[in-house]
TrEMBL record:
Pfam families: CbiA, Rv3660c_N. It comes from Streptomyces venezuelae (strain ATCC 10712 / CBS 650.69 / DSM 40230 / JCM 4526 / NBRC 13096 / PD 04745). SUPFAM superfamilies: P-loop containing nucleoside triphosphate hydrolases. Residues 1-52 are annotated as: Disordered. It comes from the Bacteria. Signal peptide: none annotated. Residues 1-17 have a biased composition (Low complexity). GO terms for cellular component: cytoplasmic side of plasma membrane; cytosol. Residues 55-159 form the Rv3660c-like CheY-like N-terminal domain. One of its GO terms (molecular function) is ATP hydrolysis activity. InterPro entries: CobQ/CobB/MinD/ParA_Nub-bd_dom, P-loop_NTPase, ParA/MinD_ATPase, Rv3660c, Rv3660c_N. Residues 168-364 form the CobQ/CobB/MinD/ParA nucleotide binding domain. GO terms for biological process: negative regulation of cell division. This is Putative morphological differentiation-related protein.
Length: 399
C-alpha cells in the first residue's frame, strides 16, 4: 500500500492518508487492526489529533504505521531521518523509529515516548539499538499492531493520571444516592476538574433529568450498547450532553435493553483515561453491567439513612459490593432514629465513615424550582461535597 504524502526538500513528509486505490486493496499486513468503533478514530467531519513522529525509510513499514495512525484517529509527521529541527524530535507525544534507521538515530537527544518498530523477529541487534537510542519498548509488526494503536491514541490524548472514579449506591431505595452523585459531580466541576457523571441505573429516573439536562443534545447509553474494545476518551467526552460543566451519560426516555458488560468496560475505561473525576450512580441490584462498573471504581460510597431497617438493608448491599469494590465507605444521612448516630451506623456496617450528610428539607423545593441537587455550594449538600473533594483530591488519597 503506497500512502499518499507530500515530501519537502529536507526529507520531511506529512502524511495525507492512504489513497483511494490503496484503501480498496486493503491493508498490507494480514494482522487485524481495530477499526474506528474500537479505537475511536476520527470520523469524516472530525479533525485528526496531532500524532507521533515517524522516522523510517522503509516504505512498507511506513505504510503500516500510517494505517495504524489512521485507526487511532491521528495525523503523524514523517521524516526519513532524524529531523534537523530539534522541536520536531522533542515535541511530538510519541516517536516511532523504524529499525531500518535506528542506527542513525544514536546521536539524537534522549526523550521519553520513543518506540523502536520493526518486523524482523530474529534480529538480536534490535535490542542493542533500542538501548542505544533510549527506546522505551520494541514492538514487532504485525503481532503488536493492536498494542501500537492503543499507544498512539493514548499519546495523542495526553494520557496521564487516570480519573478518580467514585461510585455511589444507596443502602436502600430512596436513600439519596442519585442526589449525592449529582452533588458530587457539580462540586467537582466547580473545582475546575474535568467531570463525567455516569448513570448506572437503567431503572432510575435519569440523572440528566435530575440535573435538568434531559433536553440537551448528546449521546445516551443505548448509543454505546455495541461498543467494545477501545473508545477514544476525547470523542466520548465531546459526544455527551454538558450540564453546568458536567458531562452526563444517562439513559434515553425509551426502555433500554440491558447493556453488555463489554460496553460498560469500554466507556468507563475511555472516561478514566481522560483524567479528572468520574462519578457513577450505581443500582442496588447489580446486573452484569453494574458489576463491571464496580470493578473500575477507586472508591465506593454507600449512602445509609439513619434508621435500623436501612442499616440492615445496607449490610446486604455492602456484602454484595465488597468483592468488587477496593475501597467501600459509608455516608450516613440524617435524621436519625432514637439511639443512632453516624458512627454507630458505620461501625455496625464495619465500614470507614466518610461523614454525615445533613438532612436538607429544602432540597425537594429546589429541584421543583429547577435547581439541581448540590448546585448551591453553601447548602448542606454542596458543603458536604466540597469537603469530600478537598480530601479526596488532595495528594495521597481518596477522602
Amino acid at each position: 500500500m503506497e500512502a499518499s504524502r507530500t515530501t519537502g526538500a529536507d526529507g520531511t513528509a506529512r502524511a495525507a492518508g492512504p489513497s483511494g486505490a490503496d484503501r480498496a486493496r486493503g491493508p498490507r499486513s494480514s494482522a487485524k487492526v481495530p477499526g474506528p468503533a474500537v479505537s475511536g478514530a476520527a470520523g469524516p467531519d472530525e479533525p485528526r489529533r496531532t500524532g507521533p513522529l515517524i522516522v523510517t525509510e522503509d516504505l512498507g513499514l511506513l505504510d503500516d504505521l500510517l494505517r495504524l495512525c489512521a485507526a487511532a484517529g491521528v495525523e503523524p509527521e514523517v521524516h526519513h531521518r532524524v529531523p534537523e529541527r530539534r522541536a520536531s524530535w522533542t515535541d511530538p507525544p510519541l516517536v516511532l523509529v523504524g529499525d531500518d534507521v535506528a542506527a542513525r538515530c544514536r546521536g539524537a537527544a534522549r526523550r521519553p515516548g520513543t518506540v523502536l518498530v520493526g518486523r524482523d523477529r530474529d534480529d538480536p541487534a534490535v535490542w542493542r539499538l533500542a538501548v542505544e537510542i533510549g527506546a522505551e519498548s520494541v514492538l514487532r509488526l504485525p503481532d503488536a499492531e493492536g498494542v501500537l494503536v492503543d499507544r498512539i491514541a493514548d499519546a495523542a490524548e495526553g494520557v496521564g493520571r487516570q480519573a478518580l472514579t467514585v461510585g455511589v449506591v444507596g443502602g436502600r431505595g430512596g436513600a439519596g444516592a442519585s442526589t449525592l452523585a449529582c452533588g458530587l459531580a457539580l462540586a467537582a466541576a466547580r473545582t475546575g476538574h474535568r467531570t463525567l457523571l455516569v448513570d448506572g441505573d437503567p431503572l432510575g429516573g435519569g440523572l440528566d433529568v435530575l440535573l435538568g439536562g434531559e433536553r440537551e443534545d448528546g449521546r445516551r447509553w443505548p448509543d454505546f450498547a455495541a461498543s467494545k474494545g477501545r473508545l477514544a476518551g476525547g470523542a466520548l467526552e465531546e459526544s455527551l450532553p454538558s450540564v453546568r460543566g458536567v458531562r452526563v451519560l444517562s439513559w434515553g426516555r425509551e426502555p433500554a435493553a440491558p447493556l453488555p458488560p463489554e460496553a460498560v468496560r469500554s466507556v468507563l475505561a475511555a472516561a478514566r483515561r481522560r483524567g479528572g473525576v468520574v462519578v457513577v450512580d450505581l443500582p442496588r441490584a447489580a446486573d452484569a453491567a453494574a458489576a463491571e462498573a464496580v470493578t473500575q471504581l477507586d472508591l465506593g460510597l454507600l449512602v445509609v439513612p439513619g434508621e435500623l431497617r436501612s442499616v440492615a438493608a445496607a449490610h446486604r448491599v455492602a456484602s454484595a459490593l465488597s468483592a468488587g469494590v477496593r475501597d467501600l465507605r459509608a455516608v450516613v444521612r440524617g435524621p436519625y432514629a432514637a439511639g443512632l448516630d453516624e458512627r454507630w451506623i458505620a461501625d455496625a456496617l464495619r465500614l470507614p465513615l466518610v461523614g454525615e450528610l445533613p438532612y436538607d428539607p429544602g432540597i425537594v423545593a429546589d429541584q421543583d424550582a429547577g435547581m439541581p441537587p448540590g448546585a448551591e455550594p453553601r447548602g448542606p449538600l454542596g458543603r458536604f461535597c466540597d469537603a469530600f473533594w478537598t480530601r479526596a483530591l488532595a495528594p495521597g488519597g481518596a477522602a
